[in-house]
Design brief:
The chain has helices spanning 36-45, 50-59, 77-82, 96-106, 145-158, 179-188, 200-209, 215-224, and strands at 67-71, 88-93, 114-118, 131-137, 159-170, 227-234, 240-247. The chain is of the alpha/beta class. It has a seven-stranded mixed β-sheet with strand order 3-2-1-4-5-7-6. Helix 6 (179-188) runs antiparallel to helix 7. The longest helix has 14 residues, at 145-158. It is globular and about 45 Å long.
């Protein structure tokens, strides 16, 4: 049987009236995410734990009637895993190489429930009914804090009341006075093989050039933009955070 055809990939919406101060999300995507060689190796370097994430969301209400939106889908590990368990998943990313990789994977199997959109947190134009679940993993940190708050407010408008926002990110759970020790320990954990693991240079680049923030700043933004924090889990090295957020 021939695989179902995937909905065509869309380009970012043309915004002729966008103000000059609107952030260029493509320029902030992280240069590695725009590099085809890096994208080709990404699934070897990063396991999204998608099966466990789908199981968690099922406990939180995910079922065959659910509309799921993933912001920052990357190579689509989660989107591909959740598609069989929901009515529809909209996989959104700003990076053309990432979406090209997702399209290649999707072409190998049924994808009728998957829609791919090239856009970002600030440019995604949600034309579907209100989503039941929004999912985002290691993407929000590409935005400076001002724009994180704007992005969270936009996620709020995408979700139905009571809907779930599952958010993972690099979020620093230490005091500013502890930054040197915590960041150095994390960077020192980097490996030596850029093809299969995150290297020290890549971790240093993240800290230096991307926009991870503190838990106590991000959580204030989360609550300010209309979400209740139902669960927050912090890594032992104080670098990563996972949230279950509920739209009020």
């Amino acid at each position: 049987m021939a695989p179902a055809k995937m909905a065509p990939m869309l380009t970012p919406p043309h915004l002729p009236d966008a103000p000059g101060w609107l952030l260029d999300e493509l320029a902030r995507a992280g240069k590695e995410n725009l590099d085809a060689d890096h994208v080709a190796r990404y699934d070897l370097k990063e396991d999204a734990g998608a099966t466990a994430e789908v199981a968690l969301l099922q406990r939180l209400g995910l079922d065959h009637t659910s509309l799921v939106v993933e912001l920052g889908t990357g190579t689509g590990q989660f989107a591909m895993a959740v598609a069989p368990y929901c009515e529809r998943v909209v996989a959104v990313d700003i990076s053309p190489p990432m979406l090209s990789r997702l399209r290649d994977k999707a072409a190998q199997g049924p994808t009728a429930r998957l829609k791919v959109v090239q856009a970002g947190f600030l440019s995604y134009d949600h034309k579907e009914r209100p989503a039941d679940i929004v999912y985002s993993r290691y993407a929000l940190h590409h935005l400076p804090d001002f724009w994180k708050a704007v992005a969270l407010a936009r996620v709020h408008t995408i979700l139905r009341t009571g809907g779930v926002f599952r958010l993972w990110d690099v979020v620093y759970n230490f005091e500013p006075s502890q930054a040197q020790t915590a960041v150095e320990a994390w960077c020192s954990s980097g490996g030596s093989s850029p093809g299969e693991e995150w290297t020290r240079a890549e971790l240093e680049e993240h800290v230096r050039e991307e926009h991870s923030t503190y838990t106590w700043l991000l959580e204030a933004m989360i609550e300010r933009t209309g979400f209740a924090i139902e669960d927050a889990e912090y890594s032992d090295n104080h670098i990563f955070a996972k949230y279950v957020l509920r739209r009020l």
